[in-house]
Write a structure and sequence with these properties.
Elements (H helix, E strand, L loop, with lengths): L6 H14 L11 H40 L4 H10 L6 H10 L1 H16 L1
Length: 119
């Protein structure tokens, strides 16, 4: 039986990594060993980044809702508590969009929240 050498599979593996490293500077895009390290780190960072994106958007929405609440004379936490108490189920993404695009509607929500807290 003939001996099988690993050259073809190694070449394929190397090319796969180097293709992922395209656009990196210097040795990171040319040399397999350096490219492999850079690609592994980049893939880890991109995985973590997808989780962070969700946190950052929620943080942004809360900041926007809080700013709109303050303009209507109520704090963010009291506003959210008032909405929950009056059984208004709107997520933060919708509330943040409403705070920017529909100030009058948001003001009505704020009044509803205030009345639910005081009652």
């Amino acid at each position: 039986m003939a001996r099988i050498k690993g050259a073809l599979n190694a070449k394929k593996k190397h090319n796969r990594v180097l293709k992922l490293a395209k656009g990196y500077r210097g040795a990171r895009s040319k040399q397999y060993r350096v490219a492999k390290q850079s690609v592994m780190r980049a893939l880890n960072s991109s995985y973590a980044g997808r989780k962070q994106r969700k946190r950052q958007f929620r943080q942004l929405w809360i900041a926007r809702i809080n700013a709109a609440c303050r303009m209507n004379g109520i704090s963010y936490s009291k506003f959210m508590f008032g909405l929950k108490k009056s059984n208004i189920d709107l997520n933060r993404k919708v509330l943040a969009d409403m705070a920017i695009t529909d100030a009058a509607g948001f003001a009505k929500l704020a009044e509803t929240a205030k009345s639910a807290i005081s009652a």
